[in-house]
Amino acid sequence: MSLRRVWTLLILLAIIALGGWLYRDARPVALNDADAQTLRVARQLYQTGQTAEAAAMLQQLADSGVTSAEVYYNLGTGFQGRGDHATRSYFFGWGLLFYT
Q: What is the CATH number of domain 29-98?
């Protein structure tokens, strides 16, 4: 087996192990009343086309530790609209992680 193939295999195993470790620590958290209200306002902003304002509110929720599939999915949608596909994929991935 070539050295390149061994390194590729080791890297893949490390990625799988890291993914399992991250998933183990990921727990959805129920929204409190203030966070639920912020999410409702962000939803309304998205529906009226004010995506930048909605994304800012959702980013605050994510930064404060809210782990909601809807928050991450909507953040991904906001970045998709701006053409930032790498960040979109990041948030969509977290959204899938918390989808139940």
A: 1.25.40.10
